[in-house]
Amino acid sequence: MKKILIANRGEIAIRVMRTTKKMGIKTVAVYSEADRNSPHVKYADQAVCIGPAPSNESYLRGDKIIEVSKSLQVDAIHPGYGFLSENADFAELCEANDIIFIGPRSKAIKVMGSKLAAKETVKAYNIPMVPGTEEAITDIPEAKKIAKEIGFPILIKASAGGGGKGMRIVENEGEFESQMDRAISEAKNAFGDGSVFIEKYVASPRHIEIQVMADMHGNIIHLFERECSIQRRHQKVVEEAPSCVLTPELRAEMGQAAINVARSCDYIGAGTVEFLLDENLNFYFLEMNTRLQVEHPVSEWIAGVDLVELQIKVARGETLPIKQEDLKINGHALELRVYAEDPMNDFLPSVGNLEVYQLPKGENIRVDNGFEEGMDIPIYYDPMLSKLITYGESREEAIELMIKAIDNYHITGVETTLPFGRFVCEHEAFRSGNFDTHFVKKHYSPSLLEEQHKLEAEIAAKIALKRYLKEQKVVRLPM
Which of 61, 105, 206, 291 is catalytic? Predict the structure, then answer.
């Protein structure tokens, strides 16, 4: 491989380019008209505009991306995450044009892209699964009967879904039909596929995922787990590795289960197998994400590997340079997704200009960033600005460094999830490890965040006064 096109934007495009350049491979960026002055465009060796701002006219135009790749004699395409990363048709289009798709084969993407097909595929490996339907629901009265047999509460999920879309918790029989209609409608709008299924709702789950990597020679390894339970709207905000609740035995068992899931679909490259973990530490297979995950940096830090480098080597046909027994967990890593969202207003997107945008720096602080001071936040794409990652010898050290890094990450012009990240890191439930995917519902409210702001302001004022008095050398005289 002499030249790789990165079919993405923002921080993930830069992150992929950083490794690609380190390996001596030329990079090509693509960009929409809205991203003309974005950092990823400047960072690449070559850059080509592929269309107007809306993603369906630019970043989702696989035909245009192939056209650019052929004209610039590109050897391979890295899709990042989102956009075309889990699009089986695009993977096939790359294959048809003799361009390497840095990811799994289209067959694996198709199988794991359907939660129902994925469940059917892994069945032979005795992977634990949440009780539920094994086929898409077409008969609502029959589905209600099945739901009653499973027992409420149940969860309705879009078969082709992700990011919490097409997902509804049904507490009782009375609201089943209305929630089913909503889930089907949302699934159709989001994915063009209204297929849904139902499964038992695990009341207090943790979201644990296992990073896997597979080559073309039958070798599959796992790079331990990530804890992704701090979420809003079923989407992750804070992730960490390793999880503080997994025993070595459970880690090995879940790791092997993840390897078996990858083996079941002849997987190649980097992938993530997601599980639910209940309060009794029973785990259940959820789905497999056939791409690099947003939160991959925490796995890189604790395992001491560059996942993008491994992706490229595997795509070139090389054998994985590491075996499972070579891997061990070193320290602890934490990641905060810095979204342009207002945590005081139900995490709604915050549009504006980055009047001040200064990143934190220091040992064991990593910022995968896609923005610069003075830029506007585009309304067309995901509102994530960057990923803030910290590392420590212990979980406590990583958390304390995260708080420090948040305090030194200066942004004005838009609201962000930085204050929420600090709230999480200082909360007893998180620090103790006693939390689940309902952390926001159980422990967070805008008023609590406001109280935290006031307390921080008071402390800052007292420190400033103390410094001032010290500088002025004010001495209090005895009464």
Answer: 291
Percent of the chain residues topping a pLDDT of 70: 94
Cβ contacts of 254 within 8 Å, gap of 6 or more: 208, 210, 225, 246, 275, 283
CA distances for 302 relative to 16, 231, 311, 389, angstroms: 19, 22, 18, 12
Active-site residue flag, 18: no
- pLDDT of 474 over the 70 cut: no
Summarised one tens digit per residue, pLDDT across range 157-205 is: 888 766 667 788 999 999 998 998 888 888 888 788 888 889 888 888 9
Contacts with 301 (C-beta within 8 Å, 6 or more apart), sequence order: 241, 331, 333, 366, 389, 391
The residue among 318, 204, 226 whose CA lies nearest residue 271 is 226
Per-residue pLDDT tens over the stretch 316-334? 999 999 999 999 999 999 9
Residue 304 sits at φ, ψ, to 5 deg, of: 70, 35
Q: Which among 6, 15, 1, 104 has a CA at the least distance from the CA of 294?
A: 15
Cβ neighbors of 187 (< 8 A, separation 6 or more) are: 158, 159, 160, 161, 165, 166, 193, 194, 195, 196
Could you tell me whether strands 365-369 and 384-392 are parallel, antiparallel, or unpaired per DSSP bridges?
Answer: antiparallel
